[in-house]
Amino acid sequence: MARTRFIGDAGLTARMTLVMFLLGGLFVALVAVLAVNSPGIGVIVAVGGIGLAIYQWSTSDKIAMRAMNAREVSPQEAPELHGMIDRLCALADMPKPRVGIADIAVPNAFATGRSPDRAVVCVTTGILQTLTAEELEGVLAHELSHVAHRDVLVMTVASSAGISAGMLTQGAQYGGLGFMGGGRRDSNSGPPLWIIVLVVSLVVYAVSFVLLRLLSRYRELSADRAGAYLTLKPAALASALQKISGEMSQSTRRDLRQVNAASALCIAPINLKGISSTHPPLAKRLEQLARIQAELDRPTA
After folding, report:
1. Domain count of the chain?
2. 182 lies in which domain range?
């Protein structure tokens, strides 16, 4: 992670490294299997997957801002928000990211960008109206820790393997490989190429899905922990999470759809349960913050 005053997290670094290594290996295996059976498809998938990773790496901030209909705001437009981020960045000894606001009633916030210099921290108008200053500070510290940890970049690039596999799965299911002559293998022995592509890409997609969900849940706990130790106010972040989750549970489907596109990046997701959840359960996050609060409240000898 970048050198800041946010507490280090060796577990997060190890998990990000392992996920990148495993997904990179899966992508290479996918390309190798395809190349053995159809060199043309293997080359296309390899070039497409690498191109997708580069595109996501270079435009992740723009994509997320566009998905939330957010806009960058100047210190003159949002002086209190900028002032709070200025103080937190000075406290964390890190470069100040750009600041954005999304005109959405649902309270939420997210951070994205390939590096601290290209990062953006965005909040919704709903969160500005819902939280107190201390609670908002806790949320912003959480988001800034994502920037310092660079876990948004890892999640964005790592998802390329799963996206490529998913596209291949759809192509195989709907006969999209036929125009490349991929409907059958050169030899009559063995299954048709589309069966091989379907099975391999499904395996890669499934493994990518599980790995990214596990990493995403851990990185949220890590950001909660880092933000709480930076502000020394874990109870404020816990209160913010409860308010955000409560407001989201009462929001209309139309309002929730506005944040659905970037839900995985937000401090609180749309889907809070099941294997598809990108965030840990709220109870687990609150339990961790309560432990930190108890530790900070403990008198020193």
Report:
1. 1
2. 10-296
